[in-house]
Specification:
With about 425 residues, this protein is of the alpha/beta class. The protein folds into two domains: about 5-70 and about 375-435, Roll (Urease, subunit C, domain 1), CATH 2.30.40; about 70-365, TIM Barrel (Alpha-Beta Barrel), CATH 3.20.20. It has 16 helices and 17 strands. The protein has helices at about 20-25, 45-50, 90-105, 110-125, 140-150, 175-190, 210-220, 235-245, 250-260, 275-285, 295-300, 305-310, 330-345, 350-365, 395-400, 405-415, and strands spanning about 5-10, 25-35, 40-45, 60, 65-70, 70-80, 130-135, 155-160, 160-165, 195-200, 225-230, 265-270, 290, 320, 385-390, 420-425, 430. Strands 6, 7, 8, 9, 10, 11, 12, 13 and 14 form a nine-stranded parallel β-sheet that branches. Strands 1, 2, 3, 4, 5, 15, 16 and 17 form an eight-stranded mixed β-sheet that branches. β16 and β17 (about 430) form a beta hairpin. The protein is globular and about 65 Å long. The relative contact order is 0.15. The model has no long low-confidence stretch (mean pLDDT about 100). The chain binds guanine and zinc ion. Zinc ion binds near residues 269 and 323.
């Protein structure tokens, strides 16, 4: 069904870190966005758009102080960790052992995985997240559960089975060969079906033997366009552990590079403690980073310097991510809020235009899907979020004093949460009904 939305629109035509705002930030006070068969077919000034639109096409007008945006894209998130959000007291390695590796064992039970997968996707849509790159667990059934739950929703979803064959409880381990075989089976079952992509998912270097990294690398080489996701350089104890486990490697990044796991469409969570040579290696190989500030603050890991990672002389693409359940919120607005504080602690800054870019087109670029999602423009898949810019009494009051669009957007990213998500569209279908 052809339909249109009319109102204010914010989207990005390029990376505002590297391109003047005038060319990268697209804002229109009164835009018409036309959607048909899951795609945007026309986007432009409302007066022109309405003149060209057949009279029988339904047009929904946004209420005052609402804003259309591309659907948010969470570049790194663990759905099985939904039940351990807010687990108290431990940094990364103890948090993994005491909470994560216990919760993930529960996903051997398909019925449990089904239930959590459905709740997870519903929660994402309530928060205006229309697409994400997701870690499942070591159990292939946990991948089936997530893709099956996404089928009726029509989301573009990237996900994979975690590969891990050491340094975790026996019940959560595969083997090098099983990781290869099960990942290959899941590629055959899910990759390219509907809007799904399979993602090769070695958990991180400490939980994979070299034999496993080698076989995952071999599978990656057989599928050069496939996404790869993992973790790198999140916590200093983890970095020291990797040095011990891989004494031959000059750096953490070199471990992944050796096995062919740094390349375009390979996205690594965190990267907080990467050195210059490692960032060079990311740049040269085309790999990217997922910035997970709520997680990094929660686990006391540190804070990524996004501007430094994106240095124009050797830019590394960066997406924004919740990293639930170490992350503490499904909200990409709250994730921007924490990203702002991380930027400050780095002596840097995060203008609202940069933050909203990172949560939409930036994540799409880091995942290599920026030709399909992350922008509201003709030809793109019609994933869109409508924000209410006055979603709480306090925000409503504060907005009265906002001088310009920059301030209005900044207020949203600091004070906003899911209450600011008025509606969510996936492939042109309203999946979170208008509030
Ligand atoms: N490193 C390896 N596994 C994980 C995980 O599940 N969460 C986080 N935050 N870091 C990891
Ligand atoms: Zn993670």
């Amino acid at each position: 069904m052809k339909q249109a939305l009319r109102g204010a629109l914010l989207t990005f035509a390029a990376d505002p870190y590297h391109t003047e705002f005038a060319e990268s930030v697209v804002y229109s006070k009164d835009a018409l966005v036309v959607m048909e068969e899951g795609r945007f077919t026309a986007v432009g000034p409302a007066t022109e758009g309405l003149a060209a639109l057949a009279a029988d096409v339904p047009v929904r007008e946004l209420p005052a102080d609402h804003l259309m945006l591309p659907g948010f894209i969470d570049a790194h998130v663990h759905y099985p960790q939904m039940e351990i959000i807010a687990a108290h007291g431990k940094q990364l390695i103890d948090w993994l052992n005491n909470y994560t590796f216990i919760a993930e064992q529960g996903f051997a039970d398909k019925a449990h995985a089904d239930r959590v997968a459905q709740l997870f996707l519903q929660e994402q849509l309530r928060h205006g997240v229309t697409s994400s790159c997701v870690f499942c667990t070591v159990f292939p059934e946990s991948v089936d559960a997530l893709f099956e739950a996404a089928q009726p929703l029509g989301m573009r979803l990237m996900a994979g089975k975690v590969c891990m064959d050491r340094n975790a409880p026996a019940g959560l381990l595969d083997t090098a060969q099983r990781a290869y075989d099960e990942s290959a089976e899941l590629i055959a079952r899910w990759h390219g079906r509907e809007r799904f992509e399979y993602v090769l998912t070695p958990r991180f270097a400490p939980t994979s033997s070299e034999a496993q990294l080698e076989l995952v690398g071999a599978l990656a080489a057989e599928h050069p366009d496939l996404l790869i996701q993992s973790h790198i350089s999140e916590n200093l104890r983890e970095v020291a552990w990797v040095k011990q486990l891989f004494p031959w490697a000059k750096s953490y990044a070199e471990v992944y590079a050796k096995y062919g796991l740094l390349r375009p469409r390979a996205i690594y969570g965190h990267g907080i403690h990467l050195d210059e040579a490692e960032l060079d290696l990311f740049h040269e190989t085309g790999a990217s980073l997922a910035h997970c500030p709520t997680s990094n603050f929660f686990l006391g890991s540190g804070y990524l310097n996004v501007r430094y990672a994106k240095e124009p002389r050797r830019p590394v693409p960066v997406g924004l991510a919740t990293d639930l359940g170490a992350g503490t919120s499904f909200s990409m607005l709250q994730t921007m809020n924490e990203a702002y504080k991380a930027a400050h602690l780095n002596g840097s800054d995060l203008p609202a235009q940069h933050a909203f870019y990172l949560a939409t087109r930036g994540s799409a670029e880091a995942l290599g899907v920026a030709d399909k999602i992350g922008s509201v423009a003709p030809g793109y898949e019609a994933d869109l979020t409508v924000m209410n810019l006055r979603s709480t009494p306090l925000i409503d009051f504060r907005m009265d004093f906002a001088k310009d669009l920059d301030e209005q957007l900044f207020i949203q990213m600091i004070m906003g949460d899911e209450r600011a998500i008025a509606a969510t569209y996936v492939a042109g279908r309203c999946v979170k009904e208008w509030a």
